[in-house]
Specification:
Elements: H1 3-6, H2 28-36, H3 41-66, H4 75-82, H5 91-102, H6 112-129, H7 138-153, H8 158-177, H9 182-201, H10 224-250, H11 255-269, H12 273-282, H13 296-322, H14 325-333, H15 338-368, H16 380-390, H17 399-427
Helix pairs in contact: 5-10, 5-16, 6-7, 7-8, 8-9, 9-10, 10-11, 10-13, 10-15, 10-16, 11-13, 12-13, 13-15, 14-15, 15-17
Length: about 425
């Protein structure tokens, strides 16, 4: 071995080599397209066909939308401005937006009241939907339904106070009897609330709404998308606890309660919703005392709530059946009574499993609120089919109005769907 070879030493790098960027085809949009659109020849073919169909749709609709007219007073003026060209007549939206949102009878000077109730809805729903928020906010959530009722309908403040007192009485009875049976406590609370409302109804003096702080607005004056939102929020909020009670009642060991719940669920699920709405419009008033005049809005809320509660009960019953028997045995081994076991162990797990089904029913229920137009309630579709299209100025405008209604429903339902997916990820409903 030569002397030069003996003097050689090994090279040791003192710092790491900087990482090279990944290839262009392995990152960014190109990677996403390769993995999602062109992963296989079949996927590539379907992606090309879908892109072509989207192009055809946009090529036909975008010029019509971009060439739209917003500042005319009638369909005839729109056609004069367009001069035979293809274009939408969005002027009907800029002129009749208030009727599409609030109906054609709700007083213009009171528009701020339902708008304020809608804003406060977000504040009230926040601690329920996002449980990381302070629990103190739930106090406003409890008060909000009665405050929103007073804002939208107006009149004397004694009515929402009486309604609140009924719910307090129902909760006291529920907390007293729920230790023995959830269903018994729940239905007992309902009876107690109705007793308080019935007695309190005779204590409110006649003409109390005449000198009220907020002017009274009858339910027949409600309309537009506001009516759809009110029905959707109210019926979903009421049908979830009622569905839970029905699901637990169907599994009850008390034969009478089980039979009532089974008959109710199977009967309601076997009847179309539109039939129940006609019953609410025509026949339901006969089930109340002759001297009482039950509002049509209340009758519709009762029927839609019963309809959705029957379906939610079956979804929750499926969640209860999916739990292993060991969960019930674990609750018994801890010495928990029925109410504690359901509240702390059984129902939280069953409701997590049932989230997709409950959200599916909630979205379907919100869209089904448009069926009230068949019983002469002027929701947004009722406004389109009735007063707006019946006017001589806008007779013949269809796509613009129906597209606007579809957009409102899509935004609302898409928001509900996205929240449910976030909630599923947050609660890890797949038990990974």
């Amino acid at each position: 071995m030569s002397e030069s070879q003996n003097n050689q030493t090994a090279f040791v790098r003192t710092e790491t080599i900087p990482q090279s960027p990944p290839p262009f085809t392995a990152t960014g949009p190109v990677k996403w397209m390769r993995e999602n659109l062109f992963a296989t020849p079949a996927n590539a073919l379907l992606s090309i066909v879908a892109a072509y169909l989207i192009y055809l749709i946009l090529a036909a609709t975008l010029p019509w939308i971009l060439n739209g007219v917003w500042n005319t007073d009638s369909l005839a003026e729109c056609r004069e401005v367009l001069q035979g060209e293809s274009g939408a007549c969005f002027s009907v939206l800029s002129e009749r937006w208030n009727q599409l949102l609030f109906g054609f009878k709700y007083p213009v000077e009171y528009y701020w009241r339902p708008a304020l109730a809608f804003v406060l809805l977000g504040v009230a729903a926040a601690p329920v939907l996002f449980f990381d928020l302070p629990r103190k906010m739930l106090a406003f959530t409890v008060i909000y339904p009665f405050l929103a009722f007073w804002l939208i309908w107006g009149g004397t403040i004694l009515a929402p106070i009486l309604a609140f007192a009924g719910f307090v009485a129902g909760y006291v009875v529920y907390s007293r009897f729920v230790k023995n049976s959830f269903a018994t406590g729940f239905f007992g609370g309902i009876v107690a609330a109705f007793v308080v409302w019935t007695i309190g109804g005779f204590l409110i003096p006649e003409g109390a709404s005449d000198n009220a702080m907020l002017g009274a607005v009858p339910s027949r004056d409600l309309g537009g998308f506001m009516l759809n939102m009110m029905l959707g929020v109210t019926c979903v909020s009421l049908s979830v606890p009622l569905g839970i009670a029905l699901a637990l009642g169907r599994q009850s060991r008390m034969p009478l309660i089980k039979m009532i719940c089974v008959v109710f669920i199977e009967f309601i699920r076997g009847v179309p919703l539109i039939t129940l709405l006609f019953v609410a419009s025509v026949m339901l008033a006969y089930f109340f005392p002759p001297e009482s005049s039950v509002d049509l809005f209340l009758r519709v809320v009762i029927m839609i709530t019963m309809f959705s509660a029957a379906y939610i009960a079956e979804v929750i019953r499926g969640g209860l059946a999916a739990l292993p028997k060991g969960q019930y045995e674990a609750a018994d081994s801890l010495g928990l009574d029925y109410a504690q076991a359901m509240r702390l162990i059984i129902l939280p797990q069953a409701l997590k499993i049932s989230i997709p089904g409950i959200v599916n029913i909630a979205v379907g229920l919100f869209k089904d609120t448009t069926l009230v137009s068949v019983i002469s309630m002027f929701d947004i579709l009722g406004m389109i089919r009735g007063p707006i299209l019946a006017s001589t100025e806008w007779n013949g405008v269809y796509w613009e109005l129906l597209g606007f209604a579809a957009l409102l429903f899509f935004v609302t339902c898409y928001g509900i769907s996205q929240y449910s997916q976030w909630l599923e990820r947050r609660l890890a409903t797949d038990h990974r």
